[in-house]
Inverse folding.
């Protein structure tokens, strides 16, 4: 049945500027932009698209939080998608929601005036202005319906016009009865509810836009908003379309006040052909790179590909083999440079970057061969990544650092009274 839908090609653009106020820095962080299955890197049905930022290790900001260093080049995500063409519905929704928010702002202004105990004349003036503005908004002509619209679109437009005319009548009556008291303020709130009913749209069809924050392969935080907020339109542009904003990303499964990070970015959604006419919110140059990751593992102190469980060159997840010789530029594109190693700055700084106090951790590891007892174990030292490292008493301090406390055994972790526990190395 999908082949009979009136589908159009759309593009979502997300330009990330900075990510701050991260509470944790356990691993590299990636952001993923998606709309339904499009952009979801775990989807097997949607085509591949450039929907994720490069993995970046958080750095400490020397106060309380961590941030992502994108000075060398901030990520830009482009999600190509196909949806039923319902832009005419979203345009109507944007116009009505804008009218709702203007009247809501007028009511809030009147409420503020009453709380500040301003004069009755000032309170009445704010109420009258809000009602008169609502009357003008409700007189708007709703967008014309295309030939391919359905019966529900036609009936909904007639119903909206009927309700909008009723709101006009009610608002004009209230203008004549305006009074600076809470009883009249309650009538304004009831009228606002009527405007909200006019904004209901049962057939948006295009899913919400979601930005995921991914760490250690888990989606730990997200931002979600209706797609029409970012929609390009000559008549009813989305209220956040192309605007650079600070998005509060919420932890998955927690309350809205639990902030995973603050992502500064701009978002744009529109027809594929409109993208080429759109001007970015600030001057910038976009560079497109072919990217592959070289994989090795450490054996003792030597890095090697021997025994590697993923391809020598792969995508960031290590699932798809991406040998450099297999890359070909798309039609109409040419290479302008040779392959080069481009380490992220955050990946080459030490764990103590930005800190004024740092705790070194090493693990004393005892091993025995099968059939032996623990009387004569082999002893060596490993770090938290289970890589062999310098013995505890041989750890050297970097320049400028000094020891403030002696080594202590951490007995708070699972294990026996001596801090020893069984692990598989």
């Amino acid at each position: 049945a999908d082949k009979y839908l009136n589908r159009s090609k759309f593009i979502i653009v997300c330009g990330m500027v900075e990510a701050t106020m991260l509470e944790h820095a356990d691993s590299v962080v990636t952001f993923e932009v998606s709309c339904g299955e499009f952009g979801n890197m775990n989807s097997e049905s949607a085509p591949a698209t450039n929907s994720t930022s490069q993995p970046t290790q958080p750095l400490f900001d020397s106060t309380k939080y961590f941030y992502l260093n994108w000075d060398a080049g901030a990520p830009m995500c482009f999600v190509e998608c196909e949806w039923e063409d319902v832009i005419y519905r979203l345009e109507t929704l944007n116009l009505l929601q804008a009218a709702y928010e203007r009247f809501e702002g007028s009511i809030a202004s009147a409420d503020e005036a009453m709380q500040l105990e301003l004069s009755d004349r000032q309170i009445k003036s704010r109420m009258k202005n809000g009602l008169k503005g609502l009357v003008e908004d409700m007189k708007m002509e709703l967008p014309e319906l295309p030939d391919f619209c359905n019966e529900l679109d036609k009936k909904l437009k007639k119903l909206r016009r009927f309700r909008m005319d009723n709101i006009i009548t009610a608002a004009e009556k209230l203008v004549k009865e305006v009074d600076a008291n809470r009883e009249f303020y309650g009538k304004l709130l009831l009228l606002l509810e009527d405007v909200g009913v006019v904004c209901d749209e049962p057939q948006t069809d295009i899913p919400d836009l979601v930005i995921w924050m991914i760490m250690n392969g888990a989606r730990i935080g997200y931002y979600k908003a209706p797609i029409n907020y970012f929609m390009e339109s000559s008549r009813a542009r989305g209220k956040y379309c192309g605007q650079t904003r600070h998005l509060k990303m919420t932890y998955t499964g927690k309350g809205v006040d639990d902030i995973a990070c603050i992502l500064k970015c701009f978002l744009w959604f529109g027809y594929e052909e409109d993208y080429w006419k759109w001007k970015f919110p600030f001057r910038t140059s976009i560079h497109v790179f072919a990217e592959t990751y070289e994989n090795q593992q450490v054996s003792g102190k030597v890095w090697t590909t021997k025994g590697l469980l993923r391809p020598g060159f792969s995508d960031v997840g290590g699932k798809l083999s991406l040998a450099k010789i297999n890359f070909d530029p798309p039609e109409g594109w040419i290479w302008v440079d040779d392959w080069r190693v481009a380490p992220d700055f955050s990946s080459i700084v030490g764990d103590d970057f930005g800190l004024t106090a740092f705790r070194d951790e090493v693990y004393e590891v005892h091993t025995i061969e099968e059939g032996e007892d623990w009387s004569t174990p082999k002893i060596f030292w490993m770090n938290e990544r289970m890589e062999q490292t310098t013995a505890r008493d041989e750890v050297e301090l970097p320049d400028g650092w000094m020891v403030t406390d002696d080594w202590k055994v951490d007995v708070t972790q699972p294990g026996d009274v001596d801090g020893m526990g069984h692990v598989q190395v």
In short: The mean pLDDT is 86.
